[in-house]
Write a structure and sequence with these properties.
The protein has 7 helices and 26 strands. The chain is mainly beta. The strands form 5 sheets. Strands 1, 2, 3, 4, 5, 6, 8 and 9 form an 8-stranded mixed beta sheet that branches. A hairpin with a 5-residue loop joins strand 11 and strand 12.
Length: 429
């Protein structure tokens, strides 16, 4: 699936003269900084070749249509709502405490061309006299429908309308002129109506089918085909809707003398094995994977779950502190980031064992369905390196965990750890 990540960076310095929106009520003040809003447009389709969101979609328009709400977790009355363009590049001063920032598309229709809808939320904390950077990822809340007509259908049916509608009466209609367009729907069930005129004799017919159990982010591809059978030039029209990991054939009647399969013939279609649930990563102490401040001791106990069994496990490290350590540990230059193969890199595996980092490797990962993955020993090493530097500078250190299961389902999650430059007195503590 093609991925389109739409990101606008919002960075602001905390200046006394800046415009800000204030929410009063708790002691102490800090600053919320909207660091990024990302519209994740991954779609679920499995049968037809990857078909991502149209590249011509106005990315700025998608973000401009978002409405953001900042709500205090302890007092529901402490709440502020902004248009995205009103908050971008502007710091927001907030009382200290725990908050939730959420975003939702405001320009919404139940059925529309080129209108993916997004929503998302994340929790963050505001600390007195500090800036709280927040990264917010939004996911699609509606589904996208694409039409794919076979060459036979386009030859045998010289004129057609394909109407997709919901129970409320909202609909979109595809014709030969706009068959390449993508339609967006919020409904959980859609009706497909095909009106066609045969090239052979200009006879007409209407056939219908239903797509059920539609979920957010589904990419439904309707494969429409016409099959010529026998000397009477009969036409069989089928609509195939692929939803998530389900291949669903919807056979629709309507043309006279439609070919009917012989019920006495056995079904030779092989059963398809069920696809296991996709891999996931859990961090109980930080469930939203928010950026974490480096410290001398840290609790970074992760849980990897892969019902389909782990096949590969990589950790991509992007850390200036580890540039000098990684080559010796892995044999790979770490200056531009380094990919650690925890299953196959024998040099790395032996070095990790000798360092007593308690990280699972090799068969402790391969073929497993659930693994505890602690970084509590490795990551604090970065703090020790940074705090010992004479020239202090703040920096980010990223660990991206990438794995695939035996069904070739992929998973990736980036963990970001931040080091704040210390004063001389702080270094001596």
């Amino acid at each position: 699936m093609k991925r389109i990540f739409i990101t606008i960076m919002a960075a602001a310095a905390v200046l006394a003269s800046c415009d800000n929106a204030e929410v009063a009520g708790l002691k102490g003040k800090g600053t919320f900084m909207l660091q990024s809003v990302t519209a994740n447009t991954d779609l679920n389709d499995v049968q037809v070749k990857p078909h991502g969101l149209p590249a011509e979609l106005n990315q700025d328009k998608l973000l401009a249509a978002l409405e953001l709400t900042i709500k205090n977790s302890e007092d529901a009355n402490l709440k502020q709502t902004y248009k995205y363009l009103d908050i971008v590049n502007k710091p927001v001063e907030l009382s200290t405490g725990k908050y939730t920032v959420s975003a939702v598309s405001t320009d919404t229709k139940d059925a529309a061309w080129d209108q993916p809808l997004f929503a998302g939320s994340t929790d963050f904390a505001v600390v007195a006299n500090a800036v709280s950077p927040v990264n917010l990822t939004c996911s699609m809340t509606n589904a996208v429908v694409s039409i794919k007509c076979s060459d036979t259908f386009k030859t045998e049916v010289n004129d057609y309308n394909i109407k997709v509608s919901d129970a409320k009466g909202n609909f979109l209609t595809w014709t030969k002129d706009n068959i390449a367009e993508d339609g967006y729907f919020t409904a959980k069930e859609l009706t497909v109506t095909i009106e066609g005129k045969r090239s052979l004799d200009n006879s007409t017919a209407t056939v219908t089918g239903t797509i059920q159990n539609i979920q957010a982010k589904d990419h439904i591809i309707l494969n429409i085909d016409a099959k010529v059978t026998g000397q009477v030039q009969q036409i069989v029209v089928t609509v195939d809707g692929s939803v998530k990991d389900r291949n669903e054939n919807i056979f629709v009647d309507g043309f006279e003398e439609i070919e009917i399969p012989d019920p006495n013939q056995p079904d030779t279609t092989p059963d398809q094995p069920e696809t296991p649930a996709a891999p996931t990563l859990e961090w109980p102490k930080n469930p939203t994977f928010a950026t974490t401040e480096l410290a001398k001791t840290m609790d970074i106990d992760l849980v990897v779950k892969a019902p389909g069994k782990i096949k590969t496990f990589l950790v991509v490290v992007d850390s200036p502190s580890l540039e000098t350590l990684l080559p010796g540990m892995t044999g790979i230059d770490g200056k531009a980031g380094c990919t650690l193969d925890l299953i196959n890199n024998q040099t790395l595996i032996e070095n990790f064992k000798s360092m007593e980092l308690n990280l699972p490797t090799a068969d402790q990962l391969k073929g497993q369905t659930e693994v505890n993955f602690p970084l509590s020993s490795l990551v604090p090493m970065i703090y020790g390196i940074e705090v010992g530097k004479k020239e202090q500078a703040s920096s980010d250190h990223k660990f991206t965990l990438q794995l695939t299961d035996e069904s070739d389902q992929e998973f990736s999650q980036t963990l970001v750890f931040h080091y704040t430059a210390k004063t001389v007195s702080e270094q001596s503590k």
